Amino acid sequence: MTLKASLLSGLKDKEVPCRTKGCRNTWTWEGTEQLRWMGDGKLEPPLRMCAECYAKYNELEDRKVPCANDACEGTWTWTKSARLAALKKGRTEPPRDRLCEACRSQAKEVASLDVPCRVRGCENTWVWTPEERIAADGGAGTAKPPMRMCDSCYDHFKGMSDQQIKCRIQVCEGTWTWTRGMQLEATARGITEPPKRMCDACAEVFSSVEDLEQPCKARGCSGSWIWTRFAQVEVIRFGGGKVPARMCSNCYEKFKNSQEQTLDCRISGCQGKWVWTKQMQLDASNRGFKDPPRRMCDACASEVLSYAEQGVPCKQDGCGNTWTFNPEMQLSASRKGKPGEPPRRMCERCKRFLDSAETKEISCEACAAAIVWPKEHQLKVELGVWVKPSLCADCRRARGSHVPSNPSTTSETPTSDAPSAPADASTPPAEGPNPLL
Ligand SMILES: [Zn+2]
Ligand SMILES: [Zn+2]
Ligand SMILES: [Zn+2]
Ligand SMILES: [Zn+2]
Ligand SMILES: [Zn+2]
Ligand SMILES: [Zn+2]
Ligand SMILES: [Zn+2]
Ligand SMILES: [Zn+2]
Asked: Exposed e or buried b for every residue in 419-429, given b needs 16+ CB within 10 A?
């Protein structure tokens, strides 16, 4: 066996990667060819296309593309192999930033420019190349540099992703997009938390409304409070659009600084309490009241409903009227351990009579001496129980033996001008009826 034969038998066909950038195919390097190639002293395999690229390559043609410098009429050549590589990346259009040959050599005369990073808060720069500057304004130096990130920001940016952040309106489930760019700016300023923002729907409502002045909810207050645009968003979108009831700042201060008070039930004999709330105090204050009202405790307030008004006979003898034993008085009697027991009272008419009457002085019919006639006695006369006196005590005593008893007051011994008896006394009146009338 010759050396050549042994080499031939030892060299197998080999798969070599396609030369087209971005292509993962291979082409087959046959053993015999490898031998020849090595025989020429070359160590690296040749640069070749895979069959697919080669077929495509043959379909393509070099293309003339206008220079990126708008002021230049020149072109540059987009070669078949460059087009093929672009195709492998899915691009069918030529790059837009390429200069023609003439412009490229002109760019050698132009300086590059350090431009501040577009990210607010970042102090780095990026380099605006001569070629880009020529493309921008043909080398006139008048064009403004584009907004770009520095390399470090760009690296950072690539590693980020847009984030969906919850709407700042608490009850809203919507989100807004915290873009990579916004995140980058926040980071450059040392901020790691997303800002508070509204979702688009909320923001739209927000921009359509104005702050509104609203009346204070406290009764009797003419103050107002400001319904902010922000607060309106939540109500308009999620609260049925109803204006919330709120206090003005003045009322709120009063409310905040007040203290709930526990007070005695107004039913006498009841040990119960009721609570004068801060809200009740505010209402009272706005109506000009300082002191708490008199109220029933809860138990009394419900129990009082079980009583009905009762007419109770007037305590004055001879009066057929009644006075009203009202539910509260009945409840009070019950609380004092005497349920259903009305106190002794006069009717309204008797009370009015005593309120308006005055002690009178009349003259004795016999001796013309003054007789003091108290109003309680006047009432007895008014009620027809007694008769109006006509004689003084002395004259009466003088005729005493002839005086017949008044049937309704047999036990009473009339005495002279006695001081007035207490209005509600149950004791017999000091002045008796005049038997002569
Ligand atoms: Zn290929
Ligand atoms: Zn050009
Ligand atoms: Zn930067
Ligand atoms: Zn929202
Ligand atoms: Zn108010
Ligand atoms: Zn009570
Ligand atoms: Zn009466
Ligand atoms: Zn007399």
From this structure: ebbebeeeeeb
Distance 101 CA to ligand 2 centre (A): 7
Last residue of a domain, one of 173, 189, 205: 205
Burial tier of 176 (Cβ tally within 10 Å: 0-12, 13-18, 19+): buried
For residues 133 and 81, membership in a common domain is answered with yes
Domain extent for 51: 3-59
Residues 22 and 43: their CA atoms lie apart, in Å, by 24
Distance from the CA of 347 to the center of ligand 7, in angstroms?
4
What is the mean predicted confidence (pLDDT) over 242-258? 92
Clarify whether residues 172 and 106 are in a common domain.
no
d(CA 195, CA 203): 14
The predicted pLDDT at position 267 comes to: 96
154-198: per-residue pLDDT in tens?
998 999 999 999 999 999 999 999 999 899 889 888 888 999 999
Measure 93 CA to ligand 2 centroid, in angstroms. Answer: 19
In DSSP terms, which residues pair with 166 in a beta bridge? 175
